Amino acid sequence: MKILVYVFVVACFLTLTEGAVDVCPPNDNSVYPADKCSCVKGDLLCQNLTSWPALSAPVELDILTITNSHGLVIRNNTFQSLTVDRLTITHSKLRNTDFEENAFGGLLVNDLDLSHNFLAEIPKAVRHITALKGLDVSFNGISGFEDANHIETMKQIGNTLVRFAFGSTPDIDTWPTTLKHFPRLEELNCTGADFSLMPINSFYGFENTLRKLNISNTYLYSVPLAVGRLNYLTELSLNHNHLIGDFGMNVPIVSTYLTHLSKISLDDDNITMFPNILGVFRSLTEISMNGNNLKFVSEESAKSIHKITHLSLRNSGITRIPGTLQYISSLESVDLSENGIHTIERKDLQELTNLKELKLNDNPIIYLSDNAFTKSENINLVEMRNTNLTRIPCGLKILRLVNHDLTLDFRFNKIECTCALRWLYDWKNGGYGTISHNLNILGDCVTIQSSLQDYLENNLAACPTYNSCGI
Fold first, then answer.
1. Closest residue by Cα to residue 468 from 416, 429, 422, 399
2. Residue from 38, 105, 42 nearest 66 by CA
3. What is the CATH number of domain 309-470?
4. What is the mean pLDDT of the chain?
5. What is the annotated signal peptide range for this record (predicted)?
6. Which among 196, 232, 369, 438 is placed 20 to 30 Å from 360, CA to CA?
7. 365 neighbors 341 (Cβ within 8 angstroms)
8. Class of residue 350 by CB neighbours under 10 A (exposed 0-12, middle 13-18, buried 19+)
9. How far is Cα 191 from Cα 116, in angstroms, rounded to an integer?
């Protein structure tokens, strides 16, 4: 009998780890109320529930989401016989009194999301979930995790928990050092808090396991020195921390720290200069600095991040493509959307020979040089949505269609479709030294009722060939 029980338990855990469930249970009200729930490929969404029906037989789902269910009470063993990868119960004004102590008894789940409710602490019912891997209690009224009940709950789930999200403004005003009871933590997400400082031992207990860290919407004055102790961190996000600024980026982190860090996000941190500290991180390949007011990208800082492949500077007050980007020849993807760029000049992209994606959406662009892409043989995506362009720039003809397909996104522009675009047809069909690979043009004509793609394929062939692009 013991062997049979063991095999059953192992089989249940294998169900959780082998992959997503893509089949819905019968829609006959025996599993869920059909008038309040809908299911698509194993993902079940329910709204306006006051209770969850008891299951008469085991049920497997990929995701169960219960939302906008004010008045919901979760009784003992509510989810017994349910196996689900992720259970989300959000935006339902749940308080701790709405969870009976064994509410999650018999539930097999990897991730539990209780965010956006009225919780004052992690519900004790969470203790009854076997092998919980992820827990999200952000955007509640939890003021801290230092009391005895919290500590006991954290100890009981800490041996398996690898993902944890918390954060509530203005309730949390100090960094919770009791996170040390999660010794296997790999991902930590602080969505908001009122603290301005973090102790040097903030990550004690999981310094060697944490891989992803997000600390956003706080009053931090600088990048926390404690981050330097995260020996295997690969992703760091410090977004919407308005007090950090340029001064807060000048922290003494030496080159032997954070040697595995490959991705960093510093969105909306009131930064005006490209931080020199980024050059310290030897494995860094992706940088996001959206929503800052960049006034200066120095040659020194650009040269120090020569391994970067992805750079995003959306909504950063840029009025032209920074010339110092030429020193980052490793770049494969650049996003300069939502800025004030009017022109793309001949030398702006000349040294970016590895560039594959260029995004310039929501800029007041009126001109692109005929020689802007002279050395850009690897580009497969150019996005120029919602600009001031009225024609497709001739400079795109330099892009080669020999080795790969190309997508040009001109949606939300006022492109005039006339026979002056005949060069597009010739370019696509080999007229300018290319061969006929797929050329996908997104957007619509303003002069006639047609998409740009349809106009290319069905209208331009009938136009006379003439030298509209000076070719």
1. 422
2. 38
3. 3.80.10.10
4. 90
5. 1-19
6. 438
7. yes
8. middle
9. 11
> What pLDDT is attached to residue 123?
97
> Looking at residue 15, what is its pLDDT?
45
Q: Where in the chain is the domain with CATH 3.80.10.10?
A: 31-195, 199-297, 309-470
> Which homologous superfamily does the CATH classification assign to the domain defined by 31-195?
Ribonuclease Inhibitor (3.80.10.10)
> What integer pLDDT is reported at residue 230 of this predicted model?
93
Per the CB < 8 A criterion, the answer to whether 171 and 195 are in contact is: no
| Cα dist from 341 to 25, 314, 316, 328, 357, whole Å | 52, 11, 11, 20, 17
Instruction: Determine whether 81 is exposed, middle or buried from the number of CB atoms within 10 Å of its CB (0-12, 13-18, 19+).
Output: middle
* CA 337 – CA 366 distance, rounded (Å): 15
Report residue 458 CA to chain centroid gap. 38
Return d(Cα 189, Cα 258) in angstroms, integer.
18
> Rounded CA gap, 173 and 219, in Å?
9
CATH fold, domain 199-297, is 3.80.10
How far apart are alpha carbons 9 and 352 in whole angstroms?
A: 54
Please answer whether residues 177 and 204 qualify as being in contact, where contact means their C-beta atoms are separated by less than 8 angstroms: yes
User: How far is 145 from 202, CA to CA, in rounded Å?
Assistant: 13
Name residue 235's beta-bridge partners: 212, 263
Nearest by Cα to 111 from 46, 68, 160: 160
pTM, 2 dp:
0.90
Distance (Å, whole) CA 235 – CA 268:
17
Q: How confident is the model at residue 107 (pLDDT cuts 50, 70, 90)?
A: very high
What is the tens place of the pLDDT at every residue in 11-58?
Answer: 444 445 545 677 888 776 778 888 899 999 989 999 999 988 888 789
| Interacting residues of 9 by C-beta distance below 8 A, sequence separation 6+ | none
Omega of the bond leading into 170 within 30 degrees of 0 (cis): yes
Q: How many CB atoms lie within 10 A of CB 123?
A: 26
Peptide bond into 123 cis (omega under 30): no
The CA distances from residue 20 to 67, 317, 392, in Å, are 21, 42, 43
High-pLDDT (> 70) share of the chain, %: 92
CB 405 within 8 A of CB 440: yes
| Pair 212, 235: CB distance under 8 Å | yes
Cβ–Cβ under 8 Å, residues 224 and 200: no
CA distance 392 to 370: 11
d(CA 175, CA 193) in angstroms, rounded, equals 8
